[in-house]
Specification:
The structure is a homodimer. Chain A contains 13 helices and 8 strands. The first copy, chain A, has about 300 residues and is an alpha/beta fold. Chain A has an 8-stranded parallel barrel with strand order 1-2-3-4-5-6-7-8, surrounded by 8 helices. In chain A, α2 packs antiparallel against α12. The two termini of chain A are about 20 Å apart. At the A-B interface, α8, α9, α10 and α13 of A face α8, α9, α10 and α13 of B.
C-alpha cells in the first residue's frame, strides 16, 4: 500500500480570482466536474467575498451548490470572515478555508485587518460553525508565511505565533501559504519544523506558488518534512496581485507526476487531469497556462519500474 | 563562508543544438561573454560534431577560441569521439565532456555505438588527451540514466555498471544525465547513492531536464545527496529530439535563486544573469524562453533574512 498524499485543487478559486477573463458559470461547473472525475479528492471552488471585490467568483454560491452534488469529492470554499463562512455553510460547502496573513501589510491590503484581528475573527467563525447542526471542518491558512511582497521578509517567530493562535482558536487544520512565492526549500523545512514543534499535527498542508520557479522543489521539501497535503492549481493558474507577471500556484499535473513517480498515491488519474486543461482553455481562452508535463506528455516510463 | 555549488551553463551547447533557429556567431560570442560576466564558473559552449549533424554548432571551434580568452571562466566543449576531443583540444577548450548513453536505443540513435563501445572510445580519448602537453580534464556523462524515450525504463544496475566502467577508463569526473527528463526525486536519490557506493567522489554532477516540471525538485534531491555541481541552461533552453514539445534543461536563473536562497554560494550575479536573456532573445527571436523568476523579477526578500 502506497502512502497517500492529498491534493486540494485550488484553481477554481485561487486561479480564477487572478484571471484576466471571467469563466462562465456553465464552463466552471463542467471544469470542476472534470477535476473531480480525474480523482482530485478536494477542490476549492470559490470565495465568499463581495462580487465587487472579486467579480470572477461572483457565482461562488451557485458553484458550491452544484459542486457538492459531485460524488466522492470534498468541496471547499474560502471565507475571509463570519459573513463569508455563513454563506459557505448555507451553500452546503463541505469545508471552509480562512486566510490569515502573517505580515501586517498583506493583512491590511487583503483583509483590512491586522493579523491578530483576523485571528479573533477566525475564533468567531469557528464558534458560529460549531453551533450549526452540520459539521464543517475549518482550515486556516497562514498567508505570507515565507515572505511578503509588501513587508518583505517575514519572521519565522511570527508564523509560529499566528499558527499557535489559530490552533488555540480551534480550527481543524492549519496550512502554511507561500502566497507570493518567495519561499525556498531551506525556509520551508525550517518553518515546517518550527510550526510543528509549536502545534503538532494540526499543521497539515502547504499552499505554494511558483513565482521563482522553485515551487515544486518547495513541495518536495515539505514532503520530506512529512507534509502530506498540498494545494495546487491545474495549469499553474493564479498569480499574485502584488507581484505583476509572477507565475501562479504550483502545477497540479506536475505535482501529481512527482508524487506518483515517487510512490505516493494521490488517487488522481493523470490522463484525465491533463484532459481537463481543455475545459480551462475553453473558459479562459486568453489565460497563460503553465505546466511542463502537458507539453511533452506523460513519459512512457511513468509508473513502470525498470 | 557559504558552501559552494558549481553551475555549468550548457545553454550554448545543449540549448542551441535543439533550437529551431541558428544563433549568429557574433551574438553567441556576446552571449557567452555575458554569461561569464554574470559569474558562471563553467560554460559548455559547443560540440565537436560534424556541421551537417548539428548545424547550430558548426562554429564551435571558433566559439571556443574566443571564449577561452574570457577571464575567470572554464570553457567546456562536448566531444562524442576521439576526433571531437582532438578538435576541442586544438581549439583550446579547458575541459571536455563526453556523452555515454546508458540505454542501448539512445546510444545507437545518438552515437551509433553500443554503450560499451562508447566506453571503449572514452578510454581512447582519455589516453590521447593524457599524452598531450596541456592537461584537459574530462567529464563523462551517463546519458539516459533516469529513463529513455526509446527504450523506456533504465535499470539502475546498468547506470552503476557504466559509471564504474567510465571511472575505470580514467575520466576525471562523472555526471548522471536525465537526458529526456523522466526522472523524479526518489529515483535521483536512489541512483546517486548507488553510483556513489560504486565509484565514490568521482560522481560529481547532475545534468537535469525539466520535461515533467520537476527538474528543480530533482536538483534539490541531488543537493540533499551531496551533489555540488549541476548543469543548467539560461531560460531553460533545450529540449529532446525524441520528446516533441518537451521543455529543456533546468533553468539556470531559477536554480541560482534556489541555491543562493538556501545559503549556497554560486558566484553568480542574478541581475546580470537575467540581463543575459536579452542577448539570447536577440540571437534566437523565435525560441520559447522558460523560467519563472524572470517573469516576476527577483523577490525583494532575496538574500535578506527576516
Amino acid at each position: 500500500m502506497s502512502e497517500h498524499v492529498t491534493i486540494c485543487e485550488v484553481g477554481p478559486r485561487d486561479g480564477l480570482q487572478m484571471a484576466k477573463g471571467r469563466m462562465p458559470t456553465e464552463v466552471k461547473t463542467r471544469w470542476i466536474a472534470a477535476l473531480a472525475a480525474a480523482g482530485l479528492p478536494q477542490i476549492e471552488v470559490g470565495s465568499f467575498v463581495p462580487a465587487r471585490v472579486i467579480p470572477q467568483l461572483a457565482d461562488t454560491a451557485e458553484i458550491v451548490r452544484r459542486a457538492v452534488l459531485l460524488p466522492g469529492v470534498t468541496i471547499q470554499a474560502l471565507a475571509p470572515n463570519l459573513r463569508g463562512a455563513q454563506g459557505a455553510y448555507e451553500a452546503g460547502a463541505h469545508r471552509i478555508s480562512i486566510p490569515v496573513s502573517v505580515s501586517l501589510g498583506h493583512s491590511r491590503a487583503n483583509l483590512n485587518r491586522t493579523p491578530d484581528e483576523q485571528v479573533a475573527e477566525v475564533g468567531r467563525m469557528v464558534a458560529w460553525l460549531r453551533a450549526q447542526p452540520r459539521h464543517v471542518p475549518v482550515e486556516a491558512a497562514c498567508s505570507t508565511a515565507f515572505g511578503c511582497s509588501i513587508d518583505g521578509a517575514v519572521a519565522q517567530s511570527e508564523v509560529v505565533r499566528i499558527a499557535a493562535a489559530l490552533a488555540e482558536a480551534g480550527v481543524d487544520d492549519i496550512s502554511l501559504a507561500d502566497t507570493v512565492g518567495y519561499g525556498n526549500p531551506a525556509m520551508i523545512r525550517a518553518t515546517v519544523r518550527a510550526v510543528r514543534a509549536a502545534i503538532g499535527p494540526a499543521l497539515k498542508a502547504l499552499h505554494l506558488h511558483d513565482t521563482c520557479g522553485v515551487g515544486i522543489a518547495n513541495a518536495l521539501a515539505g514532503l520530506d518534512e512529512g507534509i502530506r497535503k498540498f494545494d495546487s492549481a491545474l495549469a499553474g493558474l493564479g498569480g499574485c496581485p502584488y507581484a505583476p507577471g509572477a507565475s501562479g500556484n504550483i502545477v497540479t499535473e506536475d505535482l501529481v507526476f512527482m508524487l506518483e513517480s515517487m510512490g505516493f498515491a494521490t488517487g488522481v488519474n493523470l490522463d484525465k487531469l491533463l484532459a481537463a486543461r481543455a475545459i480551462l482553455r475553453e473558459g479562459l481562452p486568453d489565460e497563460e497556462m503553465h505546466g511542463n508535463l502537458a507539453k511533452g506528455g506523460i513519459p512512457r516510463t511513468f509508473r513502470k519500474a525498470a
